[in-house]
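Collaborator request log, item 7. Partner lab (contact: R.S.) asked for a structural prediction of Dephospho-CoA kinase to inform their binding assays.
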Amino acid sequence: MQIIGLTGGIASGKSTVSTIFREDYKLPVIDADLLSREAVLPGSPGMLKIEAAFGREVLLPDGSLNRSRMGELICGDSAVRDRLNAILHPAIKELYHASLERLKRGGKPLVIYDCPLLIEAGQREEVDEVLLVVTDAQTRLKRIMERDGVDESLAKKKIEIQMPDEKKIALADTILYNNGTLADLKNSLDFYMKEKLKNACIMS
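Returned to partner:
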């Protein structure tokens, strides 16, 4: 089994690439965002650790994570972000391995691991290749402002708290630039698949 780690900064278009892999190429995708939600289900070990670390202010009345409040806390304090990641990353890694084992038993030759913090979480060695999606800063700002309904200042802050693209580029195997149209992105991805993954059985 070959594992491609798909990653990219906020509003880079990584999720669009993930959807193309899933829908156009019919490839199995392990989504770290979904795993992170599973890791903080009410009553889960991860959620209990978060409550112990940050108090009930980060919980909603039903016991689920108040993502809005948690987002405010981590956006303004790197120490808080590090504490949260110290809880989440091991839990997500465990769920990832469980998902991978199920796919291995199913005989899947190629798996996409869609993980926005693949490099930051120390999971670079968990995959065979890192595919990094990169988009210019102005496009990312515009996307965040439109998607999240925030001003430019907060949009910039959301980008700045992440690892710079320059550092990720140095650690990635392949860079997929997403500065054009959806058709351009699909063409680039098609070229990548044909050049890097020549085994026809994984394209079926």
